[in-house]
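Sorry, I am new here, but would you mind making up a protein's amino acid sequence and the tokens describing how it folds?
***
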Amino acid sequence: MPPKSMLTGAASPSSVLFRQKILKKCREDIYHFLNHENGQIAIYDAVNPTAAGRRSLAKEFGKHDVETLFIESACTDERIIEENVRSVKISSPDYVGWSSEDAVKHYLSRMSAKIPHFETMEEPELNYIKMFNAGERITINNCSFGYLSHRIVFYLLNLHIKSRHTYFARAGTSSEEDSYKTDAGLSDQGRLYAEKMGQALLKHRDGERQAQVDRSGADIPLKPLKSYHDLAVRLEPIILELERQQEDLLIIAHESVLRVLYGYLMACNATDIPSLSFPRNEIIEIIPASYNNEATSIPIPGLPPEIIPPSPEDLKIPVPPSEAPSGTATPMTLGSPKAGPGTPRITTTSPPNENGTPEPGEGSLLLVERALRD
């Protein structure tokens, strides 16, 4: 297929027909997910630049009792655009073997070619959210928002594009280790653990700073760490706060809380989350990456062996099987979540780019359609 065959106004009749077949298959995948796989939210990731096309898409989904919420992300800040292209877009399969500068130049030219054909969202009869300059300003057109639509708006209000690292560490042993209700002080071993953990993290961050100096030649101070002394029982506000934070973040908590937060950031199978293990002799560092987060472990040396194991066995948490036989639990490896039948899932379908391969949204003029079923 010629390079410009997927661009509006430059496609041949045969490539237009081919594209329509792919789009039809994407929609069929969404219907199957919602109707036969217990799906609740589907993300239809595409540009869909024209008002007529968006109206047609909403009408098509409406025939299948699927409510649509359009999300448009517009950007006029050239710095944000170039940073986004450098950190995300040029790492796609389209640019394997390309130099960084050539890939950026090519992708920006692709964006420029699409801008004349783009019509910003102004359709009064459609539900949509318009984000400007990565959250600087948001416009909402609410025709028939349900619960999920309101939660998505609230979620988007807390997002940002600044990169920061998140560190997870177990809470130190307390003087009343068997109780999860009292706010007991640290035991002698707990204070030793806190000291060793702080030393290990400081050493790791000093190494990060030196690596930063080696790369750029400038001694740029690392972002200050923020920590939560306590976490609320209801974790949704904590997750939103985690997304909102722009500085590196250290979370020290009981293992059950770390399981939930790690499972969220690493897209773990819900049935595997109860079996995640966080021994005290390591800190888990989660680093945002282009298409998925990465997790690494930072060892904490010099700890007594008896405080290293994860939660005691008497903490009974049912673990439904995912891909394992009945009666067994699937082991979880950091950074490699497995899919399972019991996981609440979000599926993503991306129409192809000009090379015929699916990709995430298109830079400064990104339009993501989220088909919602209340």
The radius of gyration is 24 Å. Helices lie at 13-36, 51-62, 78-87, 100-114, 147-157, 188-216, 236-244, 255-265. Residues 226 and 249 are 5 Å apart (CA to CA). The chain has eight helices and eleven strands.
